[in-house]
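Researcher: Let's try something more involved. This one mixes different molecule types, so please make sure each is placed in the same coordinate frame as the others.
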Amino acid sequence: MSILKFTEDHEWLRVEGDVATVGITDYAQNALGDIVFVQLPDVGASFARGDEAAVIESVKAAGELKMPLAGTVVEVNPALVDAPATVNEDPLGAGWFIRVRLDDPSAAEALLDQAAYEKLTA
Amino acid sequence: MSDHDATAQMLRTPLYDLHVSLGARMVPFAGYEMPVQYPAGILKEHIHTRSQAGLFDVSHMGQVMLVGADAAAALETLVPVDIVDLPAGMQRYALFLNDQGGVMDDLMVANFGDGRLFVVVNAACKAQDIAHMQQHLSARCKVEVLADRALLALQGPAAGAVMARLAPATANMVFMNTATVTLVGAECYISRSGYTGEDGFEISVPADKAEALAKELLSHPEVAPIGLGARDSLRLEAGLCLYGHDLDQNTSPVESSLLWALSKVRRADGARPGGYPGAAVVFEHIAKGVARKRVGLRPTARVPVREGAELVDADGRKVGVVTSGGFGPTLEAPVAMGYVETALAKPGTQLAAMVRGKPVPVEVASTPFVPQRYYRG
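Model: All components are placed in one shared frame. Result:
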């Protein structure tokens, strides 16, 4: 089973065992507007919590995907390089950015759940 | 976008309620709450304007009427442009210069042919520009601020057809023509010009008729509302300067690559040379050249290069700066402009822009990036 968590920086992560799939929320994609460029990290790269793991550029602004938790990238979503608008169209599905092996999977419990995140962005 | 002071009282244009009802995202811009985009989003709004027609609210801009037989000669004391011989019914691009030859603002001037000059200035500069005109022109002509008028722009290849349905006489207008026409029962000043590189019109309408006119224009199937976001990407692809970014108090028109806007009769060897602020600097820049110039830039990778990015040469030496940059939806590629050392201003010159600490290759390119499609008859 998986659990869905959110950060105050508007990332989501779906944790299954010690691997988390990470993306940006619908709120974040909507605030950024039309996304035209995504730069993904290398598989194998390790990041601390809060590090910039991916670059996101929309027509009007530059943003980033921050690591919601410390871990190592095990997979990236190559579809985003050629079709960055996928993030706008399906931010919590096909628009995922990276899969990360978490250093400490239990740390996910302290992140926001969906209700808390919705309250934050209401 | 400037002016994010949330404590200041934000102004609203006469179309504020319409923007909100259309689902616009409103942002502070030059002291006004303006629509940055509608639900369609910047990309679709941009493409729609290039393929059909977009309606823009630019009522935050300043509209001024200079009235009197001496108005044209008076205005020539402030701009390096031929106003005296501007034909009736024509509009011209002009610049207010400071004593150092820097650009205080860029503006449009239309000769109504009856002793009236209609002037449109940038929103962020309008208080300064109005004071400037009142101080220097009011002894020779009346400086009337048209605060009770809104300004709309209808831009795109379908703009001509839409406007002709409302006012058939406009079909005969060509690029930079102006006319006074009745639209939705109101006296409107229209010019066949704009800020997108497309055919189109700017329409000055009494504030109390602005919403009716906007709704009328939007009722035509080709017309969609377009926000400031797409206005910026459209003007950037068209190679047009944004004041405060690509032009400012410290750039001369020669450095800004706006030599074309300096009328021949107002140059050193012209019939009415100088007589405007900064003329000596402008003459020197024309005669001796300048150390830096504004150029178009095409990043050769997909990553957008934004305002403020440093430009470096192959050795990593700083040679310039990006002043506007983003993604060009029509080109489906990033576009930018900036200032570089004159020796590096030739199209085809390979440079790099520093983006997040890394060099991104860019090529100096001629502008406009997208061909202008003005209607010339």
